[in-house]
Amino acid sequence: ELQQKVEETEVLKMELQMLETERVRLSLVEEKLLDVLQLLQQLRGLNISKRALGKILLSTLESCHDPQPGKAQLLEVLDTLQQELAACELLHKQPLEQAQSPRSLSNPLVISC
């Protein structure tokens, strides 16, 4: 009976470790999603065309094409999309008056590099 309790304890420890690993992975996915959404909101504020945004998205999906999708690919797609959006020229070509306004300094969506 004691041996059975030890085995059950070991199984529970392994399950707890797996849950913790999954929690960390989900936390990373959530952070990437937030970054992507913030960049999308910035670009929307700069009136990026739907066509340009579509090209960024299609480029991201093509560069991450994998015949066997999985959890790792999801994070790769999000990471690549975030990089593509952050590299968008519109984010770096803000008008002088907007860059100098005090309102742009307090914008919570601005991501400093």
From TrEMBL:
Q: Which gene encodes it?
A: Efcc1
Q: Please give the name of this protein.
A: EFCC1 protein
Quote any Pfam family the record assigns.
CCD48
InterPro entries membership: CCD48
